[in-house]
Amino acid sequence: METPDTLPGPGGSPVLPDGDFLRLDRQICFSLHAATRAFNGVYREALKELGLTYPQYLVMLVLWEHRELSVKGIGERVRLDSGTLSPLLKRLETAGYVERRRSPEDERSVTVRLTEAGAGLRERALGVPRRIAAATGLDLAELGDLRERLHELAVRLGAADAEGLSGCG
Asked: CA of 118: how far to CAs of 8, 64, 88, 115, in Å?
């Protein structure tokens, strides 16, 4: 279907005129950025009673799943580098939720273990996903579909980035 801001392309699919490609509201990266900022605000409010930031919450999710992991293993799962993780883990340790230990086999490797207090925090966090889901206004099937589509997008963009083809648009 042709609309005022589209032109028919090959096979009848709508194509944007060249001038529209550089409009901010046409950038998928901006839509994702805006959605991320909105999610961060909702998470900030939902996590306030737990005393966690969103990145700390991600680390706790991984540790609630695995109980103990290397810093490298945590970083791979939450997609944060060790420079970002180290101060975050230090704060979680100060709060009493995790313990960090150097590996006796390899001094460079640090293992992070959930403490009893950290494990206990899991029960208090159970309502967070429900609050986030409710804030989206989407049903569980829609949320599952969106999560899967975003995962696929992340995989494709990661592959494009590895090939040097990344870009916004």
From this structure: 56, 8, 14, 5
User: Contact 113/98 with Cβ under 8 angstroms?
Assistant: yes
Question: What's the pLDDT at 29?
Answer: 92
Q: Is-above-0.90 flag for pTM?
A: no
Look at residues 107, 128, 108, 109 and name the one whose alpha carbon lies nearest to residue 64.
128
Q: How far is CA 134 from CA 35, 40, 51, 53, 129, in A?
A: 15, 15, 21, 20, 9
Low-confidence ranges of the chain (pLDDT < 50): 1-3
Q: Which residue has the tokens 């870009």?
A: 167
DSSP codes, 67-105: SEEEHHHHHHHHT--HHHHHHHHHHHHHTTSEEEEE-SS
Q: How far is CA 18 from the centre of its chain?
A: 32
Q: Which of 89, 15, 30, 24 is nearest to 55 (CA)?
A: 89
User: What was the pLDDT predicted at 165?
Assistant: 63
Q: Do residues 41 and 35 lie in contact, with contact meaning Cβ atoms separated by under 8 Å?
A: no
Backbone dihedral region for residue 67 (phi beyond 0: left; psi -120 to 50: alpha; all else: beta):
left
- Closest to 110 measured CA to CA, from 78, 77, 85: 85
